[in-house]
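Every protein is a chain of amino acids, and every chain bends into a shape of its own. Below is the pair of lines this work produces for a single protein:
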Amino acid sequence: MKIRAFFGNIAIAILSAFIAVIVYSNYFQDKISNTPDSEVQKQRALDLLEDSSKVNYSQIPTKGEVFDFTEAAERSIHAVVHVTSKYNLESEDYYKSPIYNWLFGETYRQQSVSFGSGVIISEDGYIVTNYHVVEESDEIQVVLNDKRTFTAELVGTDPSTDIALLKLESTNLPYISFGNSDILKVGEWVLAVGNPFNLTSTVTAGIVSAKARNINILRDQSNYPIESYIQTDAAVNKGNSGGALVDLKGELVGINSAIISPSGSYSGYSFAIPINLVKKVVDDIMKYGEVQRAVLGVTIKNINSEIAEKYNLDKIEGILIIGVSKDGAAKDAGIKEGDVILKINNIKVNSMAELTEQIGKYSPGDKVYVTIKRDNKRKQFDVLLRNMHGNTKIVKAE
C-alpha cells in the first residue's frame, strides 16, 4: 500500500507540473507578448492627452454652479463696433475778422476726434450708441469687428436718455437680439462689450449691482432727463460708451453709458441704460424721427420713514404724489395728491427713477394700469397717457 501511495503521489506531481507548463505557455507567455514596448506606451500616452483636450469641462459636475461666459461673448462681440466722431471746431488762435477771411478764406477750422462704441441691432445696419458719443459730430465713422469701415448716417438722437441711432449702408450684418431689462436681477452676471481706450473688442464681466440708479449726469443736456441706470461692477472705461451690456444668453440688456470715478477711469461703478427703455426710443426715432414722450401728469417724491410717518403710511413703499397737473392724465383718471403709486402695469416702482423708467417706455395715447395706495388701501386706475402738451398727438421731427 505504501509503494502504491508513493507512486500515486509521483504521478500527481508530474501531472501538476505538466499542467503548469501548459498554462504558463498559453497564458502568461501570451500576456507578456501583448505588453506594449516603450514606444507604444508613449504613443498611447499622446493619444490619451489628445482625447483629454476634447473633454467638455462644462459637463464635469462641481460642487457649485459654473458660469460659462464664452457663448455670450461670441454672440455679442461681432455686433459691437468702434465709433469715431469727427468735429470741426473754430480755432481761437486765428483772427475772425472780415479782412482776415477776405485774405485767407474762411476761418480756420481745427478737427477734433472722439471715440466710443456702438451696437448693431439689425442685419441691415441700424446701430445704437450714446448721444454724447456723436453729439454735434460732422462725420461719424464705424469700424466693425472684422475691420470693415463705414461712414454712418445719424438717424436721430434723444438727449433725455442719452441715446443716438446710426445707420450703415450694408446688409447681412451680425447683430444682437434684445433681452428684457425688466426681469434682470441684482446679482445676475452680465458682460460689458466695447472699445475702451481704443482697444477694440474688449469683454469684461461683472454682476448687476443695482437697478434704477439716478446719478444726475443728463441734466445739462436735457430739460427732461430720464435716468434709471443698471449699475454693474463690470469694468468700463472711456471708449466703452455706447457699447453692449449682455446677459449670459448673449442678449442685449443695456447700453453702457457712464462711470463714477474720481480719476476718470474705472473704479468699480459702471452704468447702462436699460434696453427696454432703449427699444422704445429707437422705435420712435425709426417711425417718427423723434421720441414720443408720455407723461403721467404728477409731481412725485421718494418715500422715507419721515414721509411715511407724516402721511400716516403703513409701509415705506412706492412713490408719493405731491401734486397733480390740472389737465393731466392722472387727474382725469381719478388719481389725487397724497396717493402713493405702487405699480405701473403690475411692475413695482419704489423710486422716482423706477417710475420715470416705466412711464418712459410708453407713448402718448397708451393706456397703463396704475396701482395706487390711498388711505392704506389699494386701488387700480386706467390712465390714458398724454404728451407734454396735454394731448395724445404724434409729434414728428421737421
Remarks:
- Residues 79-167 form a domain with the Thrombin, subunit H fold (CATH 2.40.10.10).
- DSSP finds nine helices and 19 strands in the chain.
